[in-house]
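Progress note, sequence design subtask.
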């Protein structure tokens, strides 16, 4: 491997300078894979005391305790140092702060830099997905999104994992596949950026729903019912928004939906569980202590679905519980007494 990057190439096996913005679980997991693949990897986190602690102990104690960081991973709180010479930048910042961080980094980026969002959310008080923000806040960049069934803790534990890189730029997809591919991590590609990104944001809502069902001691029939009807809602919404519903049967759709709705490794699932056990939403979110994107996404999708007349009974139900102070038993009764309808109503056939 050389340390020299061809600035125009995106399909190289050479060691590349690559930045990962974000000091949380996923930023750390991705940075560790990239460093392990021999790239000159810089992870940026805003807090110098945390960055120093990670450098000194070789571990990100708060987000991934007990996981050794790759010794070659460079951790810094200086944005300029992280970005210097990088033509590939992953942005792993919660949706709430995503725009603010992109605005800070934009002046430091060379034209043609590959910008990859790994964030599964929708911007607060707007309906922007993260790739929209990347496009709005920069110009002349090459943009993609990474999404899939990917618990950070399982990635760093070396469990076999797959994800999706989505971009209209096929060379970008090829490069990111090479940069991230490892013995335990596979990367599939897609050209449906909107569908992949929307799927990643939507599935968080339903993880809150199934977490709540688990808290209420519902069985596997209930979980299966919820996951399957969640997929129907997601595809219906996707179609109304102009995304390709077929994307939702891939890893970023049903793959991530099954994962997140089935495990208490999911922060969204745990929020639902705590609320199902009677804890106020604010308390549940505070106890998790990490981002649970679904809470904000519920509000935004409910508003959008109402505006567009898309039928999303599970979104309406979880919104009623989280934001309208409606009692859980009453909401469940309403859901179960709704009009009986078709199982598979969507058909790709004309
Ligand atoms: N954790 C996972 O398993 C996982 C997997 C796939 C995708 N994601 C997605 O990745 C995104 C990030 O998730 P995460 O798990 O890393 O979150 P996290 O809560 O573990 O960490 C978020 C990080 O962002 C930093 N941050 C927040 N606001 C900031 C700001 N204004 N400036 C700089 N840094 C700021 C925090 O300090 C923290 O280091 C989310 O959208 C999530 O949906 C997470
Ligand atoms: O912990 P969650 O609920 O944010 O889910 C993490 C990932 O998105 C799973 O793919």
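Output:
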């Amino acid at each position: 491997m050389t340390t020299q990057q061809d600035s125009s190439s995106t399909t190289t096996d050479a060691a590349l300078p690559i930045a990962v913005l974000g000091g949380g679980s996923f930023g750390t997991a991705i940075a560790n894979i990239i460093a392990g693949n021999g790239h000159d990897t810089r992870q940026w986190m805003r807090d110098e005391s945390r960055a120093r602690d990670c450098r000194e102990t070789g571990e990100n104690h708060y987000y991934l305790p007990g996981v050794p960081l790759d010794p070659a991973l460079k951790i810094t709180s200086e944005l300029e140092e992280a970005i210097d010479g990088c033509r590939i930048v992953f942005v792993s910042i919660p949706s709430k702060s995503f725009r603010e961080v992109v605005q800070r980094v934009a002046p430091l980026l060379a034209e043609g830099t590959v910008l990859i969002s790994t964030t599964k959310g929708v911007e607060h008080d707007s309906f922007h997905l993260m790739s929209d923000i990347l496009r709005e806040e920069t110009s002349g960049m090459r943009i993609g999104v990474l999404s899939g069934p990917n618990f950070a803790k399982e990635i760093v534990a070396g469990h076999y994992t797959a994800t999706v890189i989505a971009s209209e730029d096929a060379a970008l997809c090829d490069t990111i596949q090479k940069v991230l591919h490892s013995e335990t991590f596979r990367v599939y590609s897609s050209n449906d950026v909107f569908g992949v990104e929307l799927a990643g944001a939507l599935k968080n809502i339903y993880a809150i729903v199934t977490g709540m069902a688990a808290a209420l001691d519902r069985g596997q029939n209930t979980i299966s019912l919820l996951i399957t009807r969640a997929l129907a809602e997601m595809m219906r919404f996707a179609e109304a928004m102009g995304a390709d519903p077929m994307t939702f049967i891939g890893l970023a759709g049903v793959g991530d939906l099954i994962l997140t709705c089935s495990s208490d490794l999911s922060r969204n699932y745990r929020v639902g569980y705590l609320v199902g056990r009677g804890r106020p939403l604010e308390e549940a979110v505070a106890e998790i202590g990490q981002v649970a994107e679904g809470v904000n996404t519920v509000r935004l999708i409910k508003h959008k679905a109402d505006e567009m007349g898309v039928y999303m009974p599970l979104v309406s139900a979880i919104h009623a519980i989280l934001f309208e102070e409606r009692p859980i038993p009453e909401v469940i009764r309403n859901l179960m007494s709704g009009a009986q309808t078709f199982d598979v109503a969507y058909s790709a056939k004309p």
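DSSP finds 15 helices and eight strands in the chain. Work on this subtask will continue into the next period as scheduled.
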